Amino acid sequence: MNMNEIEYLKAGADIPETTASLLTSSSKYLNSAKLREVIALEALRKNGKDLPPAYLVPDAMIAFAELMDLGKVSALIEQERASNPVFKSWLDERFVSSFTVEDLKDYKPGSLGNVMYEFHRETGFANDFMFGGDPEDDYTYYLKRRIQVHDIEHKVTGFDADPAGENALTMAMVSNAYARLGTELAHELTRFNMYLISTSQMKTALHYPKMMPVFLESLKRGIVLGETCKPLYAVKYEDYLECQLPEIREELGITDPPAPGEWAWTSEAWSG
Predict the structure, then answer these.
(1) pLDDT at position 131, please?
(2) pTM score, whole prediction
């Protein structure tokens, strides 16, 4: 760029001077050294085989948690309770899952129970691997329940646990929250989801250009699913364990899932 082009874009503006002795801005997120570092690391790095894909997730969660205004979130939850009977009923029940892998072993082939039995048996993953114990309040219940059903939602939506499927499911959670909850509450509840989406897209743009078309497709399909299906936060999937996946999808308004294994190739293509 030449100087005239630079001056045009900057429009003659200068960064305001400050008397502060440390870095500061009007954004609490920019002011967070932890968040600046983890966003840069996640967005600019390659997916090396030396570390698991979620290696930096705990760092990002801690950084965002330190900036969370829990009083504001609690107030927004109470507002939503007052105007959204589905949300209120879900929170009042505060259902948590307690099934084990052994509890699922006798479900018929093709049923959700059988699908989850095979998944847990093959991977060793647990459905309650974070936010253990009894939730202290509505917000911690929301976090706990979202973790409990994450792997189930991969199976029900058809968005498998590969990079494209993770993108699609994450975007579905975002669009579903904005479609079924108040905008301000959806904003608070999906901020971390958008961190995951934005950093994965930048990483792809920098290092994995062949992946971008399928990632864009996954985002589009996730948005459409979230906008058109029932409120996913309120689904008690445990009531559907005997049902076949097509039945569940019809009940929840989930249409056009990817074919099984359609995006499996992205796991290898998005590494190294």
Answers:
(1) 55
(2) 0.91
